Amino acid sequence: MQIILFGYACRLDVQNVKTVFVDLDKSILSRQLTDAFSRSGYFVVVATLNSYDDADYFLQKGLASMAVLIPPDFERKTQSNATADLGILIDGVDTITAGTVSGYAQSILKRFSLDISNAQMNRMQGLLYDSSNPRLIVPAVTDTSRSWFNPNLVSKDFFVPGVIVLILLSLSIIVTSAVIVREKEIGTIEQLMVAPISRLELILGKTIPCFCIEIITLSIIVPLAFLVFDIPFRGSLAFFLVTALLFLFTASGKTLIWSSLRPTQ
Asked: Are residues 190 and 120 part of one domain?
């Protein structure tokens, strides 16, 4: 239950954001901007409006999460090399989602602006080469980044493995610590001390059942994470199992020490 609930809850992916466009320009460039948002895979254009007040209505009623406001002089200013203003309204009730949507919108606008700049640069370069005094236009160099192990930055690939570790850690703390402290609370720890067993046998008898429960839990939630959430597994399975057992062993050992020093749960 925990791996399923937390696996679906701990996500930052934003898809199919309901978006409305207020296109007062009605130009080719404004339609290209609308297509850039709709083709990105993050936004779904639910309506094209004719008034800024209509955009406020859609946001207040929850019919849309973002509104793009295109002024009537958008294409004219762009073609005349002037600064063209553009409005973006985002529903900020969920601040985390709003920040992610804002980042997506800014990246699309940045790419759209770069395409316009490149088109104008190419047009200017052709005009210069046709002139009697051509000049060399040096193209700009831009950097790009790529995430190595998670190229698409899928949040479940980050969070679900972390949830697995937290479940195993909390399980080892709760189960292992209770076996010694509980004996102290009910007063049976003295009977165990005088029993005809060594201290090592007592520790192993209390630790091995808890360790088996943790291993069973590990063998259940790890395949469940791969099957339900389609988490890619890359690397050595043997190394993963060895390190997982070492993690459970150290966590159980530390918890056993803590429980031996405390009188109550």
From this structure: no
